[in-house]
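Hi R.,

Here's the chain you asked about this morning:
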Amino acid sequence: MSETTELAAETLHLQRTARVVGDPRILIIDDEAAIRESLDTLLTLEGFTVSAASDGPSGLELLSRNEYDLLLLDLALPGESGLDLLPRIIEMQPNLPVIMITAYGTVGNVVDAIRAGAENFVQKPWDNEKLLADIRAAVARHRAEEEVVQLKRTLKQRYNFENIVGKSEPMLRLFDLIAQVSPSRSTVLIQGESGTGKELIAKAIHANSPRKDRPFVPVNTGAVPSELLESTLFGHVKGAFTSAVTAKKGLFEVANGGTLFLDEIGTMGMDMQAKILRVLQDRRFMHLGGVQEIQVDVRIIAATNVNLHDAVRAGRFREDLFYRLNVISLELPPLRSRREDIPLLAAHFLKFYADENGTEIRSLSPEAMRIIMDYEWPGNVRELENAMERGVVLSTSRTISPDLLPTQLTGSTYSASLLDHQPNASLFDLMEEIERRIISDRLERCHWNQTEAAEYFKIPLSTLNQKIKRLNVEVKKRTRD
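And the predicted structure, written out as C-alpha cells:
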C-alpha cells in the first residue's frame, strides 16, 4: 500500500470516528436540482449535515473523500444509472445504507437494487414523515454498527478483546483491569450474574497473557457430577474405579503451561474445595487412585455467580480457598446497569447471526429498540444474544419488529393484546393465557429442555410439568442436550 493510499485510509478512519459522535452526514445523488434542494432543506432542518451531487462521477468523488451515514441515490441518473453505480458504492463504503429514489415508472427496477444491497427505496413524490422515519432508522442502525467497528478496532489495538462489546464506564474500567492483570501469573476471580460473559473475560485475560499460545481449558464445575469432578480435573489411573479401564489425564495436565478456567466454582463441594486449595498452594496433585505427585504450571481463573462472602459465612465455601482465589477480583456489571451498551450489543449480535444465517437483517424497529432498552435483562448479555438470534431466524424482512421479540420482553403488552382479542375473558383466563405464553416461550428458548426451563423459573421440575399439563402447553421434542 502506497503512502498516499495509507494516508487516505487513515483520513477516512479519523472522519469515521469523528462522524460517530458528530451530526449525521447524508449524501444526495440526484440530477434534478429541485429534488436536491428539497431534500437538503428537509434534512438540514432535522439536524443532518447534507452534501449533494448531480451525477454519478461527482457523487463517487465525494464518497472517495468523505464518510457518510446514509446515501440517497436516484435510480434514473443520466449516463450510469443508480443501479449501475451501486456495486461501486458498496465496494467503497460496504456498510453505507443506500435508499434509492425512484419515479413510479421505475419501481420494477427497485427489486434489483434491493438485491444488489440497497437498504430501501422511496417513490416520488414522497411523504416527508415516512422518509424521515426511514432515514432516522437507517442512520441509527449504521451508527450503532460503526460504533461496534470502532470500539473493536480500538480494543483490538490495545487489548485484543475482539468479542467483548461495551463503551460504558463500568466496561471501560473492566478493560483496563484486564489489561493490567493479564501479564501476571496471579489467580483471578471473576464474579457476576449468569449471562454477563465471565468466560469471555477469562479468554481475554488468557489471550493477552504470556500463556496465549498454550491451552485455555474451560470446565463448568457446577455441570459435572460431584462423583466425576475429581477424575475430570485430576485424571485417574487404570483400575481407580470400576469403569476406569484405562488411565486418563485430567484437565490440570491438559492445561499445563496455560490457563484452567473453573466456572461456577461456588457450587463445588467442600471435599473438592480442599483438593483445589492444595493444588493452588503446591502446584502438585495426584491422579485419582495414584500415588505419584504430578507438578503443573497452570494459571487458575475462577468464576462464580454466587456471592462467595455469603457462602463463606454460611459454611458452604472454605474461607482459605476464597482468599487463595480472590488474589485479583473482577466484577462484571449486569446489563441493566450499562444500558448504553445495549444498542451496541444488539447491532453486534444482529450482524453476527445475519451473517451466520445468510440473511439481510439490518436493524431493530424503533419500537423494538424501545422495548429492549426498557427491559431489565435478568439473563444479561446471553439473554440479549438469544433474543437477537431469535429475531434474525424468524424475521422475513430487514427489520426486527416487536412481535419477533421473546414474550418475556413484551410481557407488559400481553394484557392489552389479550383484552383486544378476548374482551369478555375473566381475569383468571387472562392470567392463564399470559402464563401459558411465558412458559411456551421459555421452553422454546431452552430448546425444549424442561429441566433448564424449571431452573430459569426457579421452580421444581414437577411443578413446571404440572403447569404444562394444566395449561395445555405444547411441548416439542428437545433439539439439543
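The chain has a mean pLDDT of 82.

Let me know if you need anything else.
M.
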